[in-house]
């Protein structure tokens, strides 16, 4: 080593040698670039696709295409041809729900959801500013931006339907159609509530602004804050998957877990208040389970 150091110190010392100093000290290996945000997005999309494929594949292995679990009632009929009529029937049930309350039905869950939502609305001025003033969730928000989560939600039923077609599994195809029907039903309800509530989004308010006076102030009624559209759609899809594949106990955990993360991202992105997200989750679940699936 001492010889090498001595040789390397003289000027022009390499001229008479058939080797260079780099032969003794090769350049360091190139460092791998850190995983980019796009790579994280790709991983997330692949994970969701795998979830749909796994649920469908496991169901097919255990029950066979089109089979029913012993405790599961027969499917409600759904197809591309029946979808418009089903949608109209669903809307009738949704908007005539007060009639059920007048008959004395469903008061307990209705009061519970309304009470929790009201409590969260009262707490929103204390919770929302913390998320408005922090950059802690920047990386998380990059992966779960509004466009990304919308694409992810569209991808799940689309892939489920495509795999159902490929496997000739009518159960998988129907599940995808039920999910699409639930999203349509929930979206109509969501847009109507937004148009009435006119609630500002947290991002519409300055970090030091007033977060207590938010209703009936938005100038974008169809894009206002109450309730969360992404959350209502995420829980609509999750509930269909969780109910239809409930014989596999891990499916509800994964479905509702992903929907919950999407809902949380709407808060960290400052797109919604916690009350918006809770009500969206409750409505998405209710529309899917009690309207689209008819309590199945």
What key attributes describe this structure?
296 residues, mainly alpha
How would you characterize this protein structure?
The chain is mainly α. The protein is built from eleven helices and no strands. The protein has helices at 2-9, 37-63, 83-95, 97-102, 107-132, 138-143, 146-167, 170-197, 229-244, 250-268, 274-292. The longest helix has 28 residues, at 170-197. The chain is globular and about 55 Å long. The relative contact order is 0.13. Residues 1-46 and 52-71 have low confidence and may be disordered.
Helix and strand topology:
Layout: H1 2-9, H2 37-63, H3 83-95, H4 97-102, H5 107-132, H6 138-143, H7 146-167, H8 170-197, H9 229-244, H10 250-268, H11 274-292
Helix pairs in contact: 2-7, 3-8, 5-11, 7-8, 7-9, 8-9, 8-11, 9-10, 9-11, 10-11
Tally of helical segments: 11
User: In terms of structural class, how would the helical and strand content be classed?
Assistant: mainly alpha
The portion of residues assigned to helices is 55-70%
What kind of sheet is the major sheet?
none
| Oligomeric state, counting identical vs distinct chains | single chain
Instruction: Give the N-to-C terminal Cα separation.
Output: 78 Å
Shape: globular
Mean pLDDT: 81
- What is the number of beta strands? 0
Provide the gyration radius in Å.
Answer: 27 Å
Question: How much of the polypeptide forms β-strand, as a percent range?
Answer: under 5%
Low-confidence stretches are 1-46, 52-71
């Amino acid at each position: 080593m001492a010889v090498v150091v001595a040789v390397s110190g003289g000027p022009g010392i390499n001229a008479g040698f058939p080797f260079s100093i780099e032969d003794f000290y090769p350049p360091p290996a190139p460092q791998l670039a850190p995983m980019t945000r796009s790579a994280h997005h790709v991983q997330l999309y692949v994970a969701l696709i795998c979830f749909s494929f796994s649920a469908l594949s496991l169901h097919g292995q255990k029950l066979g295409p089109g089979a029913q679990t012993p405790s599961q009632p027969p499917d409600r009929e759904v197809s591309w041809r029946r979808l418009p009529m089903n949608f109209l029937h669903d809307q009738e049930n949704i908007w005539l729900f007060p009639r059920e309350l007048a008959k004395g039905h469903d008061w307990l869950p209705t009061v519970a959801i309304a009470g929790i939502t009201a409590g969260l609305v009262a707490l929103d001025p204390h919770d929302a500013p913390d998320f408005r003033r922090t950059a802690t969730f920047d990386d998380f928000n990059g992966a779960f931006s509004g466009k990304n989560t919308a694409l992810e939600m569209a991808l799940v039923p689309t892939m489920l339907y495509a795999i159902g077609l490929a496997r000739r599994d009518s159960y998988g195809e129907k599940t995808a159609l039920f999910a699409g029907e639930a999203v349509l039903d929930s979206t109509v309800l969501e847009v109507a509530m937004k148009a009435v509530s006119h609630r500002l989004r947290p991002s519409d308010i300055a970090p030091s602004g007033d977060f207590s006076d938010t209703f009936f102030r938005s100038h974008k009624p169809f894009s206002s804050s109450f309730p969360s559209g992404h959350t209502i759609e995420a829980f609509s899809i999750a509930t269909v998957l969780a109910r239809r594949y409930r014989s596999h106990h891990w499916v509800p955990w994964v479905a509702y877990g992903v929907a919950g993360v999407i809902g949380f991202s709407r808060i960290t992105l400052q797109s919604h208040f916690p009350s918006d997200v809770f009500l969206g989750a409750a409505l998405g679940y209710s529309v899917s389970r009690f309207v689209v699936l008819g309590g199945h």
